[in-house]
Protein: DNA topoisomerase I
Amino acid sequence: MAVEASDKPHVSDGFDDDDDGPIIFRRNTTSKRNVEGSNAATSNARGSSLQKGTIIASRMMLPKESSGGFSRASTSHVKAYLVNSAIANSKSPLGGKPKPSLERKIPSGVKVENSSVMRLTKDNCEDSEDELDNKPLSARLKVNSNNANKATLAVVKRSSEDSDNVDDDDDIPLSARLKNYNVGTSTSSKYDNSDRKKPISKVQKGPQDGSNASIKQERPSTLLVKRPLDNTDSLHSAIKKPKFSVLDASISDKKVPMKPEPKVEEEEDDDDDIPFSQRMKKLSESSSLKKSKNVIKVNKAGLSFKKQATTFKKFSNNSEYSKSTKILPSSGDGQKKWTTLVHNGVIFPPPYQPHGVKMLYKGKPVVLTPEQEEVATMFAVMRDTDYMQKDKFKENFWTDWRKLLGKNHVIQNLDDCDFTPIYEWCQSEKEKKKQMSSEEKKALKEERAKLEEKYMWAIVDGVKEKVGNFRVEPPGLFRGRGEHPKMGKLKRRIRPNDIVINIGKDAPIPECPIPGESWKDIRHDNTVTWLAFWNDPINPKLFKYVFLAASSSLKGQSDKEKYEKARMLKDYIGNIRAAYTRDFTCRDITKQQIAVATYLIDKLALRAGNEKDDDEADTVGCCTLKIENVTPEAPNKLQFNFLGKDSIKYENTVEVELPVYNAILKFQKDKQPGDDLFDMLDTSKLNAHLKELMPGLTAKVFRTFNASITLDDMLNKDTKDGDVAEKIVVYNHANKQVAIICNHQRSVSKSHTAQMSRLTEKIDELQAVLNELKTDLDRTRKGKPPLKSSDGKTKKNLNPEALEKKIAQTTTKIQKMQRDMNAKEDLKTVALGTSKINYLDPRITVAWCKRHEVPIEKIFNKSLLAKFAWAMDVDPDFRF
DNA sequence: GTCGTGACTTGCTTCGAACTGT
DNA sequence: ACAGTTCGAAGCAAGTCACGAC
Structure:
């Protein structure tokens, strides 16, 4: 049974008893509601400008990414960013000046022209080296490492824009810098920080302590027993990433990944049995140890911001990760995710309640059965969406609805249907609901909560954990994104006999909530984390899973591993870049394509790009780029234009290394539009190759790596002394750059234009007031009375000091409004949340907050604090 | 090596409550 | 009190990637 000392859900405990005052969350984005002329269905048509040219600002100009910039690191990142920032954000929010919308102001071309790009003056993948192509990359890299200095890489002197920022090794020949990487360890990498200087094998031997660890141990558990984050092998081995967890074994035979350090200590063997996650933990803990001096220092500083410390404590305290001393039994199979699992299954949406409102067919009311009416209502309520403009949507709806109507039904075509009565009925119902008193609303909410309470929690190995999506999806019309061929199809009602339950062997099987029906199947599979699933009614070969919530330890554990893997890439990235640069001119076309694809994934943070079926929207990623998605522009630019995930448009023109440019020309030769650019490549080949370079490396790791390293660099470069608000501006700016790198877009709020004009009006009004005040001041100084106000009233005769004060206040107000307006415009198509939730290592944020005395709740909202509980006790000196 | 399946992460929109300014 | 706005949470679609069968 769960160990439970409180009735309260543990997740919220940290908030409910907040005695430190209210937690205020703010964000400077515009409303996400109401999409300007578009919604999901038209996402491909929107926001294309976001990407346009902005990548360059943040990534394309990064010298480290150029052919030779392998050893370049964080500072270069930031430097490049700053240069671009100057270009792209001539009126940056940091500067507080009016800043027009990104896309309008920054034609990609301009940015490219301004970018400082290091070029290969000579290709370093000589034909003579082709003999190496048959050797494993890692082996080749060894050669490469020795040859790196000889590699005929040269750096074109960086352009003047960033010359004043040039950092120490900018002038060091690239070859020399490369050497650092090739020699191996992080000591040579500028990405490195001290806590990464030991190879995994070494670090794990260290004492498991670190200041954080000791703090954890001292803390008694007050609520539930929590699962430790790096809880021995049971949990870790449970994480289904065998390639990662068992990396030692898997890589030791033939294909040895590049090593961040050349020398492997004897102890390594001993660690082979230790799960990767655990080793990673030790790795970071060892860093805590090393930094203990600093910790003390920071702790001292911390006294001045007790409240902040309390927040961190509260979250790490409440975190399952920091409390438990419980060791889960070892699974032995390396796959076990849990030992005991208890939950109550899922809750179903209420049955359909017919409203009896008659729709019209050829102007006449039609009687429908409840089933037919239900589907008609689904269609009626979509009247205001863009789906109604899509023939495919209507066609699919009609096909499915007609099946319900039957061939001989009076309704014979959709065009003659008028759903207005139903639509209006729905609107009035909505309105009624809106008009309910707050007491009524509260009562309803409580009733619902009471009904759902038992489904909200699961007990995993004795720990009460929140369940994520315990509600079965209600029936509806499928809202595929982009030009999805199945949009409009009926998503039928899911019944208990569609649902497979996964639960512990000894746990009671959840009672089926619908009398007379039963579950499809009961499983006791502890190698997976799902609690239930059903087949997607739209695409039966896909599944809909019920998982634990993001705040659960299982999710937290895998989150942490994800970031550790990305951090690990930091130690390998130099060699990896050297390797793919070498292969840009390989004779082996597959290798050449792998090299170019990896380059694009690294440089542009593209997704891998799996193959897609015909019954899905036509979107692409790196491996599935089509000929027409990339347009070469002589001498060495590539113009990208494609629909990516969720049919979000990716538009970007970038300057690339000449060998890459030439390779793209070669890949396009003799192909037609519609043909694959990388015809020899797919994601499995690419990932198999990446795994040779670093254990567990896949294409998506590059995205996490690039996002997190960018945040880390920018925060550390740009944070200046100042008040919290200014620091938050820095954070949001970095967050925005990451969102741009990852092409995280959102649709423009429907009310955006109206909001902007309202703000403009207000600013104009204030400006008029300001002018009046200035005139009055002028007159007062000359001994004249103030002019009458615009409405003809006589104004009070103020003294010059009072007028000056008023002028200052008004000016400040105008400036603030202008700042808000600029921020709103600036972020109207940029979604900051996605990167925060998925790509930015929370420890970067937490450590930065600690270092700069920024309350963490200014950056993370309640759910993020819960999700990232595992990161709360990070060393303030943590660097990604 | 390819393909299909399964499990999980990522990503955008929507909903509705809370907040803010008047 | 009200309207407009912000924001967290939920919803669910759409990706990635591993693995096993053939």
About this structure: The longest strand of chain A covers residues 637-643. The CA atoms of residues 484 and 617 of chain A lie 4 Å apart. Residues 194-336 of chain A form one domain.
